[in-house]
Write a structure and sequence with these properties.
The structure is a homotetramer.
Chain A: H1 2-19, H2 39-58, H3 69-72, H4 97-116, H5 123-153, E1 178-181, E2 184-188, H6 192-195, E3 212-216, E4 219-222, H7 228-236, H8 248-256, E5 265-268, E6 271-276, E7 279-282, H9 294-303, H10 311-318, E8 334-340, E9 366-369, E10 386-388, E11 397-398, E12 402-404
Parallel strand pairs in A: 8-11
Antiparallel strand pairs in A: 1-4, 2-3, 4-12, 5-6, 6-7, 8-9, 9-10
Helix pairs in contact in A: 1-4, 1-5, 2-4, 2-5
């Protein structure tokens, strides 16, 4: 298994770099908004993660290139030490991209040495390495969304031709079908066994456990994501001007930030354009509507006479025999649920500093389920719980509707 | 029943005024923080509520004293019209207190006329009146907490002798006992029948319904509230300096606002004082710790090796045969739960503009259960869902611990 | 002279109270903006001034009513101690208005005792009393402007019938005449002798001295203030939409705060109304335009092809033989100059804590000259230097134009 | 003369690039604070200046590479059009550095073509070119200070070895000597003739004119700049803890931003280090103290029992026979004066959009005189008026003391 992990390590780490293929050096440095870190920071931080949690404790010969890296690339681990302020990540021209690539190489060499070393293949190293790789994969998605955020605010609307992940709908939109579910006692969450993270494939985060039972009322869930065309109908029906459709906090946001369309839409010469990684494009009405905040998803669902699913509804519908009728659960857009991100009953954060990974964010955010076109292969699963603030719009987030069944 | 409502109306409205008994005219006008409205605003707004939802639609002869009142005293009803900004309520010296008391009298006279009129005792008027009275009772609690917030920030620490609601513990603190519950399928929420709000006593808010089933894991819940002495032990153990005990958002708040004790505590000459409505007092260690934010309650519970209960745990434990062992569920302090405030499955907001009452606040807030010393008699019930932001500290909010039972 | 001061003291102190004649208790408490203090704070602070600088040092038997007053009513004297934050003055319901009136009485009794005592009529006491009275007069003007600010933001537009200081123009506006001056060496500033503040009548502030020479280029200055009608012409010519007319900081302010008219103007049903102490009134085009910021005065002057006078031009034109042709130098509106507020050559702040009175504000503000309808009688003089931030609009501030004379 | 300008053009433009010699691509992109623009922005904006004011109006064949450049690289010319927000200049990864260098080349080729063209050597082109070159030189200084600001906040304290402009004192500090001046009528400002900007050497900005007379009281001015050692004595005497030494706005800044030393000083292991372009260095006590705000310079002068000179004092002392005794007037550090930046009597901004160059900033800023080690050769002169906000600390700004002479 050590060897297998060895090659997974190579593969995952290489993928982060390949995502940056078309970037100019300048693109690596920009932080267009406090929540969207510079690509070079992602490359450094993911290396810091292996260094901090594995190399420094387990490889006695290892030396950090510069002490300051421990501070500069710590994201939020208070148990490790102080952090360079998140909103200021775009204020660091040094280390340069080249120096960060060197840093990656140094970390990779040491990690591979460690993973190959017969006596160091202990459970803890393996488990932390597996965690580090899934951590890296999460940052791979953020690399894409943060690059898009950078290029997307730029009036030049640059195209990133190397990144062809955003695909148009292949067919006209058919009517949404709602699939019925009886509810009752269902089981969700990740296997106990996967908590111990023995292999890359079986891994799950601590926040996905324990597997547990939830009682659901009868409900129905949409067989597909909502489309740009459907969202346009909401807008044309005054969606952004009607407070009765919005949560109170949402409406404040609409007014203050003057929202009148999804993040990447621009009205130009009589038509809606959408910025995509390949540049400004006329809006494709058949494609699923993307980059919505929870606030927008919720208002749109209310306008539809529907609602967002709970995370338990989402997961159990996809664990059911009808799951094959539920299109685009994975690989297209994350799907907002109406579940606030909190702990499952019996939740235990991991021991040690990695215990800060998920648990401490359990307030104020909403759960998204599924995965998106920016999610790396092998990273998605049924029990996966993504979470963002209800006003966040720069992720690949969309809407799958649900409804109560009146008894 | 009309007559009964008539006298309940008189009683409830009179109670609002009696809460202001010891106030100086100046005390009525102050807004010490955006969330704590001036007492005179509460007196006006609760009158506006009856006027707007009952008198103007149902009593053709009724005239609002000044058109501007419709704007000045609308809290957040977008369906009704624009609102004077909430944070600026303390910037209005006019109408004066005397003018607002006149306004109350005019509204009361008209309401009593309407309630006595034989042909106007329709269901809708009765239901809206019942709602208006419960609304008034909610503002009675806010009157107390907002007055305390005003006097409590004043360096003179004025005493409000007329308001003797805060009582010391009568006995030394005994050890907390945790009461065990099996979990399984439990039923929570308010009766269908009460949704139609036919009587003042049977009333419940729309957010308490539908009654529904929830599946719980085995858990145990504390038989009493946590005390000042216990909270002091947390502080003395570095509670406010240890980020590992806090949610990420909570820790940001601790650092930014330099929290180092509950809201009304002051360290003076070697001892902790607590501001209470009767003035500065040495901290009573046996009394339940009050005016905690959710963030503090959560950190304290974590330090205790425990957690906060979910709202379903709280409610079903109090619906059980063991409920008589659960002390101070009502009448002392609201109890933070770890449940984010959201809709129950099948939730339907009321029709019309009063539909904005509860539903639109279902993001970002946490549920509190029980009631406090500031809650008017007859206003509390098992299904009641109070909600505030996790950083709010000016309510009478405390901690009841819960724990998982390891199987 | 002691007796004379005694009676001036009574008179000045009484005038502060008479300015509050028509106020409701509520009006005394409101702080509509950080810069506009509650009337009761002015009444307390002016008493604190006598107490702090005279009674506590010179009258051994004197006791402050409450220690906290020393903190609550200190405006900005770091040499005296900490200050309750200026922006939070409206958050104090206590002490009540009645308690502050008692405080005034206690201070007055002690001051009169001291001023009558034969051995305590030393120069220092006299000088500080004279200063305290001029200080009180400054707050008399602020009382008026801060009350107007409070009532003026209130949608009820309350009228303060007792305060009839704002008068309409008595005659149609004639064309502005510009009076020519040769410039050359002129002398401005207050007499040395007045620096020692021996009498109330001869007093001047430290910032008005030393009297000194200034060299002026030839210039001309307008014989009257600019009118509402003239300002309306500026507005109708796109004044608030043309950045080329504005200083850079001014334009930022116009955009951010959406200025489109002077502070108290409202467009309603096809005409401009102006809020005045007697309530909303149709704009009187012949009256001088009031409540302009420096930024607006400067932009308007530029649009006129003119400029604002320097303070030396203003003063020396009024010290000249042509001064009788210069109308409304005093008693109508303060006149913005284009002089930044700074020290005169050889300026010495007063010794002791009162040295903080004027000198430490010598950055960022602009000088205004003359006096206004809110300035108490006997407070104005040719050398008087008033100063406010260039964006301040709530003072009685207007425009007198000046121009260069091309040689 | 056209040929001479031609070669000055080449030289000045080349110098901007040479200042960037040691930069990594990343260094070109960073905006460490809203007021410190990315180097690549400076390179683009200075090209935009020539393009906008000369090429587009006078060279019909010229085409802007991308329309968006007109918006992205407009600094503050409202007369030209909208501007990309200043604080967001660091959010643009595109155009890349290479693209901006191409842009420079295109502009240079066109400019040289124009300057060589016989019929296009009109006065206006020459004058605007001269202005553009002085504009470029101003940005050369900003390039250095903004690069230093970027590298200086970086915890890695990178050294820019190519930039050796900051030199240590060559000798121990001798006692300051104050040179006496009689005052009286003096003449300052730039020659009328230079207003027409006919040659690069004789150029002056519009704000330096007209030459005019000023009347000065007798004064004395220090023969050298104040040193780090002298400033340290101020700090050791509690300089940053004593509000009586500071202007009110200054003290607010000290408290809010927790100033306790000049911008680039760090206390580390028992000694003060100063960040310089060559990296962290132990503080050289003999060198002039640099990177002070006006607020600090003013407080330090007050502590010294002195003051800052007025700009007229500064200029006329250097126009006098004693000027050779005044060391480091140029080439070391800009010297704060106590003069607020305003217009000279008779000031006329240039006609057209370049009229926004200087005049519209005449509020809120203070004048600095002399020049610094970052000022390009040939850019300094006696009448030069630099201006920054009183809290700005990232420029090469220091202190030369002055004093009144008591008569």
């Amino acid at each position: 298994m050590g060897e297998q992990l060895h090659s997974v390590y190579r593969e995952v780490r290489a993928h982060s770099l390949s995502l940056c293929d078309g970037l100019s050096t300048e693109d690596y440095c920009i932080q267009p908004a406090p929540e969207a870190s510079p690509p070079k920071w992602h490359l450094a931080h993911t290396s810091w993660f292996f260094e901090t949690f594995i190399l420094l404790p387990f490889l006695p010969s290892y030396r950090r290139p510069l002490e300051a890296y421990g501070y500069l690339f710590n994201s939020y681990y208070e148990g490790i030490g102080k952090q360079w302020p998140r909103a200021d990540r775009g204020k660091l021209s040094r280390p340069t991209v080249a120096e960060i690539l060197e840093y990656r190489e140094q970390v990779d060499a040491a990690m591979l040495e460690l993973l190959e070393s017969p006596d160091a293949r202990g459970d803890e190293i393996v488990q932390l390495t597996v965690l580090g790789l899934h951590h890296e994969q999460q940052h791979q998605e953020l690399l894409v969304t943060d690059i898009k955020r950078n290029l997307g605010v730029n009036p030049l609307s640059p195209a990133l031709e190397s990144c062809a992940i955003e695909q148009d709908a292949e067919a006209p939109t058919d009517a949404i079908e709602f699939l019925e579910f009886d509810g009752g006692l269902v089981t969700i969450g990740a296997d106990e066994s996967s908590v111990s993270r023995p292999t890359f494939q079986e891994f799950s985060f601590d926040n996905e456990s324990p597997r547990h039972q939830v009682y659901l009322q009868p409900y129905e869930i949409a067989n597909r994501l909502c489309s740009n065309g459907e969202y346009l109908a909401f807008m044309n029906d005054g969606g952004y001007e009607r407070p009765e459709l919005w949560l109170a906090e949402a409406w404040d946001r609409v007014v203050q930030e003057q929202w009148n369309a999804p993040l990447y839409w621009t009205w130009a010469e009589g038509e809606w354009l959408e910025y995509r990684l390949l540049g400004q494009r006329p809006l494709c009405k058949e494609s699923p509507v993307a980059h919505l905040s929870y606030f927008e998803a919720d208002a749109f669902a209310r306008w539809q006479g529907a609602r967002l699913p709970t995370e338990a509804e989402w997961e159990s519908s996809l664990r059911s025999a009808k799951s094959q009728e539920i299109r685009d659960a994975f690989g297209r857009l994350w799907q907002w649920t109406c579940s606030a991100y909190g702990c499952y009953p019996g939740f235990q954060p991991w021991a040690g500093a990695v215990g800060e990974y998920n648990g401490k964010f359990m307030s104020g955010q909403m759960v998204l389920r599924g995965s998106s076109c920016a999610t790396p292969k092998g990273h998605a699963r049924l029990s996966y719980r993504n979470f963002f603030y209800p006003w966040d719009r720069w992720q690949y987030s969309g809407v799958r509707l649900a409804r109560n069944i009146e008894e």
